[in-house]
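[step 3/7] fold_predict: job queued, chain A
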Amino acid sequence: MFWSNGHPLQNGKFRIETVLGQGGFGITYKAIHRILEAPMVIKTPNAFLQNDPDYPKYVQRFIREARILANLPPHPHIVRVNDIFEEDTAHCLVMEFIKGMSLYEWVQQKRAIPEKEALGYIRPIAEALAMVHNAGLVHRDATPLNIMLRDNSYPVLIDFGISGEIIPTTVSSKMFGNRAFAPYEQMIKGNREPVVDVYTLAATLYYVVTGQLPVDSLSRRVDDEELIPPQDLVTVSDRVNEAIMQGMALKSSERPPTMQDWLHLLVVEEVEPTPPRYQRLEALLAAGKWQEADKETTKVMLQVAGREKEGYLDVQSIDNFPCEDLRAIDRLWVKYSQGRFGFSVQKRIYQSLGGTQEFDPEVWKKFGDRVGWREGDRWLYYNDLTFNLTAKEGHLPERNRGVERFFSRVETCEV
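[step 4/7] structure written:
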């Protein structure tokens, strides 16, 4: 069954606008919610799959997995599932529409992406997949085509449910996942273990930093083709090169067994000694004393800027804040939060929402919502913030003055 543009669904609740994509299993449409007047994504199986004798079992799995996804804790890097319904015997999954390019398109436009920027896309997706795995799901197709860049900067993993968890006998498992990104066992047996996602995301990182598709696992296994290390193609650090090569090991037993284990390979190791001024901050962060570390951050920043008496940073002190100090503080926050907190994380989120040097109250509210400084229409008091790693990405360190100017300084200092 194929729905043309303008076709109504659910008694006119949705209206098909266009086809976004079509693969071996499903068709993805962009639709408009009539009442909300908002774009949505609707995905449904190809009609020919209904001829499969086990189709009812696949539908039940599809519904079960959709329910699990819908009930996962909200995660900024996982597409939201909004609804599931049946239309003309076809089951439909309704998801949020992500405006922006796919990571694949971004790399095609930019070619090889610098390591720091690449990790800004891949690490949040790895963290999201770790949460998904803990819920008992495996994506199985976390390729650049399924990583959307919201507003061309903020990575969001899409295409759960149909593509990742239902494997009818009428569709070979070789069709699931782009061949260049799929591990050997997935193409041969349709494996659903977390190590499949480890391989796929490592291959995605390979593509992002090199601008080239890796040789596929089947050719490596059958034809003995060698996987060229990223360092032979572009300049990347030893740790990223090693993380990619370990994650793309042909034998699943030789890969990091969990996504969290693979993430640890990407953690930036401190190569410079921590300046004495920040050793207390480091100790607090290492101990997981996040609120004390947040207060210590404010304290040392005021000391550096000579603004202890005033108790806040003004425009001049922000514009002149030493870059080496800004980088040192951010490095510590990013390191001990495993990439969840830090000025660089906040800057990326702020800019993805359209934030600039000019204060925009709507962007500021969106930023507060995204990092968890607001609930509903209310800004939280300081003591109501979440001082642990369950907080939203970018939740710490807390800042409430001159944020637009501050992130401009973060950008200038290349933090």
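[step 5/7] annotate
The chain has a mean pLDDT of 86.
The domain at 103-265 is CATH 1.10.510.10 (Transferase(Phosphotransferase); domain 1).
exit 0
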